[in-house]
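Suppose you are handed only these lines of text.
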Amino acid sequence: MTADRLAEVSDLFVLAAVLLYLFSMVGFALELAFGRARSDVAARRAKVPVTVGGAGGADEADGADGTAEAAAQEGVEPPSWAPKAGVAALVLGWLGWAANLGAIVTRGLAVDRWPWGNMYEFVVAICFAAVTAFLVTQIRQNVRFLGAFVMITATLGLGFAVKVLYTAAGPVVPALNSYWVAIHVTAAILSSGLFILAGVAGILYLVRGDGLSRLPSRADLERVAHRAIVLSFPVWTFAVIAGALWADKAWGRYWGWDPKEVWAFITWVAYAAYLHARVTAGWRGRAATIVQLIAFGCLLFNLVGVNIFISGLHSYADVN
Amino acid sequence: MAVKELEKERAPQPAGFGVLGWARWFWRTLTSMKTALILLFLFALASVPGSLVPQRGVEPDKVARLFQQNPTLAQWYDRFQLFDVFTSVWFAAIYLLLFTSLIGCVVPRAATYLRELRRRPPAAPRNLSRLPHHAALTADLTVEEAARRLRARRFRVDTGDGWVAAEKGYLRETGNLLFHVSLLGLLVAVGIGSLFGYRGNVLVVEGDGFANTVANYDRFIPGREVSAESLEPFSFDLKDFKASYQVQGDKKGQELDYSAYLRVNDTPTAPARDYELKVNEPLEIDGTQTYLIGHGYAPVFKVTDGQGQVAFEGPVPCLVEHKPTLTSGCVVKAPDARPSQLGFLLRFLPTSVPLTDGTYASAFPGELQPEVQVLAAFTGDFGVRSGRPQSVYELAPTDLMKKLKPLVMGTSVPKPLAVGGSLDLPDGAGRLEFTGVKEWITLQIAYDPGRMPALIFAGLATVSIALSLMIRRRRVWVRIGDGGAVEVGGLTRTEGSAAGFAEEFDDIVKVLTAGDKDDR
Ligand code: HEM
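From them, the structure of the protein bound to protoporphyrin IX containing FE can be written out as follows.
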């Protein structure tokens, strides 16, 4: 296939991914709306010990989910199709994931370089990372309750990429033609994907009241968020440091307080503050979640806001 | 948990508030986790203006423009050091407090940690079934055998009358301490770099050279401890510069690659060598790095004055006005021209094409049809000899501009000059010839002795934070009763990272029951 054909295929894959994520979101939402929360909890109980990549984990000493379980038991008998909707949603999610992957691979082949050289490609890759984080986590633990929200985030993210950020396939400026793209940007994408998962859980935490709700229990949400951040923080640290190494090669200094660097730093400090906040007594739950969401806001601002509102040296940010 | 223990040790004493009491109170407050948290927030918050207000160290021209456009605001910004956020007093205050707090935090923790390293695992609690993980089994097991099996799983083990206590995962605390220490190290490395390092920019035109002395820089930013003699004595000539651009498609005109071909003398006596300088591939000479930052065109002009003498001849670096086509603005000054000085405002078009409305524009950044438009020519005093600082990109300071006498204005010159073309000024005032095209590059030259230490500490920080967050501290106790009744209990000491322990615990129970011969 020619490069142009590949680029077209990539664009089609992205559209397919948007649609599949959207349908998947609907499926998860139906399961959440008509299913019974209790089945979630029971399943989670059975599976809890295993985690993503063997790192991070549940705090068994944490007795909070017992109450959620009891509360949820009082629900009405759900229609029998509800769990099926969930399974269908999962299948659609995986299909969307495959399409998203296909989009990235064909784009990479079309441009003959790492396919994250501009904002469009970057956001497509981050959506992929977020969905991957979700899908892989749910293999080992029941976090299906997050499905609808992760999928809507990915749908919106891809939609935003296509509508606002779209850049035709093409070469990048010389500064970006470096193996550091593979190292620095890949780490940034991975950790951003995980932070998105945590952010989604954090928002749900705040939206959900303390009482009986269709939404997962606060303890579950907080645990998912914390685990994702614990996993992501070292990766983000690495991404920032790899960025400094690259800046050292490209711009003649490893750190120069370019706006992008400033916000990467702010994001890093904010997540460190979150980790500290949890260690300090009394900063669990709501307060810690707010700190986490502030950090998440910094991350998003760095990904999107800085590129659009503030000009800097980071040349990949060519949004016209 | 370690924190709580620590905070207990430092429980507030009823201070007889003398100076010492206050000092102690201040130190305790400073090193508390709450203060650390607040300082962390402040640290992040204080960086924000650094990204919103242009910074002197990063964009000096934007700062200057703000001073011109909005002097009142600029002065207020300046008063609060908002143009120099990251070197400001208040920013330094925050991070020095934070790092003092960090020292105050790390030192006692390190002491506790060292003590703990030698301490044996705590004795078994009375009721093992209360622990989060618990199992009761019957096995033919002695205390020694249980201890051996746990040791084989790399637990630290202590035994007592009928019980075994085991603990594992000390690396977590090691990682945590190492991480915080690395942050301190990183700060020191950055500090060393800013004291003993320097940074400078220089523009070099093809055919010219550069020798690394302070006087040769266009802009030089030394650290406090840098002296002129400490600069590495290398030099190089710019032999050639080549850039390639995308020729087709949406991205037509985008840079693909560029290289500067240098002839380098590492020291004044060393033999010259060739070096191809590219983006992302700096030239390193004994710790001093030379980076290729930008490039542009330097058309060559010859100015003959009213008396027929050559008043100026040479390349003129032009400022890039439009990056995608490298349309550039040039200023040519001939202060030696007689009877009066001459100056020209020009536009350089690397690939000049006529537009339908009779004007010309550059269609491509490469040098395919290089032409120069004469926008204006002036005569008069350009202030070059006035001793006032002058910009090579400006004809004259604004007040002098008004007094200049225009000889030619843009509209009267219909067609741009091609290489070899010339323009005769009216009234025999002189003549401008466009004789050729060269290219210029901008370089950043930097020396930073803190680079390597910073890299080492940064790497250490990454590894140790991963250790600290991934490893869990866990304890297992075994109590052996009469008739082979064995009770096992376990817990993880670290909040939020207990996952996987249930499995490990099951494994341990299996090993205790069945022996470890067949356990992998
Ligand atoms: C430069 C700023 C700092 C950064 C970026 C930072 C970052 C971190 C990170 C990422 C963790 C891991 C959290 C976890 O294990 O869940 C941590 C833990 C910790 N930090 Fe800091 N820290 C900083 C300053 C401080 C200061 C000033 C103190 C003391 C006042 C401190 C005390 C601690 C303690 C006690 C822990 C251990 C928590 C535990 O045992 O799990 N840190 N820090």
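What can we learn from it? The two ends of chain B are 34 Å apart (CA to CA). Chain B touches chain A through 68 residues (CB under 8 Å).
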